[in-house]
From TrEMBL:
SUPFAM superfamilies: Pili subunits (SSF54523)
Species lineage: Bacteria, Pseudomonadati, Pseudomonadota, Gammaproteobacteria, Alteromonadales
Superkingdom of origin: Bacteria
Species this protein is from: Pseudoalteromonas luteoviolacea H33
Record domain Type II secretion system protein GspG C-terminal: where: 34-111
Record's protein name: Type II secretion system protein GspG C-terminal domain-containing protein
Length: 142
């Protein structure tokens, strides 16, 4: 037998085995609520780095787009929330140098307001989810 035929006789069964027993990977899209929570956590991390890594006064952040103007760049672009509304930032101050980031678009969703508070504890920022739905309030420490 010629070498190409032998190669085909070996490769075709192997290819069939790979196709038959290939592990299936399921990728599910994120819900808008989950996407907003991940975005806010990412933005909160960037704001914390603004303070700890770049040594900038976090109280000077008036809007999240300030995080796009840093060197080194902390974030390329501040995204819109999954409902095409901007995320908002507010510095609360105090000893914990607290700030909040929230999704305005989530107000019109079933999830209700999605807001994270970030407080400085032993030099590191800790995030807590404050989600206000129609009839109840959930507070989950992350």
């Amino acid at each position: 037998m010629s070498k190409p035929i032998v190669a085909l006789l070996i490769l075709v069964p192997l290819l069939l085995l790979v196709l038959i027993y290939q592990p299936t990977i399921h990728c599910f899209p994120l819900s808008p609520e989950r996407a907003a929570k991940l975005d806010i956590q990412h933005l909160g991390t960037a704001a914390a780095l603004y303070s700890s890594l770049l040594k900038h006064d976090i109280s000077q952040i008036k809007e999240l787009h300030a995080l796009e103007q840093t060197a080194p760049k902390l974030i390329d672009n501040v995204p819109l929330d999954p409902w095409d509304k901007p995320y908002h930032f507010r510095f609360l101050g105090g000893q914990a140098e607290a700030f909040v980031i929230w999704s305005t678009g989530s107000l019109d969703s079933e999830a209700g307001l999605i807001m994270f508070t970030f407080t400085k504890v032993n030099g590191d920022y800790k995030a807590a989810l404050l989600q206000i739905a129609e009839q109840h309030t959930l507070l989950n420490a992350l």
